[in-house]
Amino acid sequence: MSVIDKNINLQPETVTKKDVGFAWLRFYFANEIPHCFDKYIAPALLWALMPILKKLYKNKQDLIEAYQRHMLFFNTQLSWGGGTITGIVASLESARAKEVYEKKPITIDDDLIYNSKAGLMGALAGIGDSIDSGTVQYIFIAIALPWAQQGSPLGSLIPFICFATYQLVIGYYFAQLGFRLGRSAASEVVGDKMQMVIEVLSILGLFMMGILAGNYVKVSSSLEFNLSGKEFVVQSILDGIMPGILPLVTVGCIYGFFAKKGLNVTKALFGLTVILGVLAAIGIL
After folding, report:
1. Which residue blocks in the chain are alpha helix, DSSP H?
2. Quick one: 48 exposed, middle or buried, by C-beta within 10 A (0-12, 13-18, 19+)?
3. Which has the closest alpha carbon to 71: 91, 83, 53, 56?
4. Measured in whole angstroms, how far is the alpha carbon of residue 225 from the centre of its chain?
5. Which of 137, 167, 246, 253 is the most buried (most CB within 10 A)?
6. What is the pLDDT of residue 19?
7. Which of 132, 140, 142 has its CA nearest to residue 161?
8. Are 42 and 118 contacting, i.e. CB atoms less than 8 angstroms apart?
């Protein structure tokens, strides 16, 4: 039973867009800091929601129960998952606080709130990781790579600053979307319009990876041989067929390895080093 303090007004305050934006900002900066094995980043989400929960639950016991609700296991990607779920939870807690205050039957119970988080955190993390970590950050890296090669500090700073700013802005958008639409926000995130954005980013990412492979993957053959008194230079022959064919084959082989064996970067790097080392030792590369 809730412990009621008759000396205070128990009516929940209205949660505003500013409150949701502030909660997202707190989650953005606290994301991986209170990371623990059994709860993962649940403490970060709770810390983000604390100002909102304090506005909603004026009774101490109700507030304690709200804190406990959000200390269960939680883990997701920062912007797509964290932003959306922060907004959705704020919306659910607002509705629940109203039911508590008006002494109505609690339809938004602990299980509903947690199951909403648990059901979304994995799906949204998959989308966020593939788009943010798998595409967007490499676009920024590709843009800044020429500066890095020229020795400019901007080559290392620009990708970090741009990617951090991008995640801050898109996470804020998803937090507001989640608060406005509640649990239906998830369908908006994976809806047709967003799928079109995802496809455009994926295509752009592929173009950038192609540019990176063509310009910065350097593999050439040093093999030369003499046949009937005529000297043949293998690299010149390959350039006549298709310039950059060896870097393309190298990237294609690595991609094929990842497709079959999973994204095991360590094995790929070790295997590539051994293969290229052997080919170089026998004079092919």
Report:
1. 17-30, 42-56, 60-69, 84-101, 110-128, 137-149, 154-181, 185-189, 192-216, 234-241, 245-261, 265-281
2. buried
3. 53
4. 50
5. 167
6. 93
7. 140
8. no
The first and second tokens of residue 280, run together, are 């170089």
Nearest to 171 by CA among 87, 240, 80, 238: 80
Torsion sign across C-alpha atoms 145, 151, 154, 156:
positive
Report residue 158 as tokens: 């620009």
Q: Which two tokens stand for residue 285?
A: 């590369």
As a whole number, mean pLDDT of residues 144-163 equals 85
Token pair 């639950």 in the structure block, residue: 57
Q: Angle at CA 123, nearest 5°, toward 121 and 126?
A: 105
For 230, the 3-state DSSP assignment is strand
Task: List pLDDT tens digits, range 228-271.
Answer: 666 767 667 776 777 777 777 777 777 777 777 776 777 777 77
Q: Which two tokens stand for residue 139?
A: 């676009």
* CB neighbour list of residue 195: distance below 8 Å, 6 or more residues apart: none
pLDDT in tens, 3-29: 444 556 778 888 899 999 999 999 999
Q: How far is CA 171 from the centre of its chain?
A: 10
Q: What is the residue whose two structure tokens read 């020229």?
A: 150
79 CB burial (10 A radius; 0-12, 13-18, 19+): buried
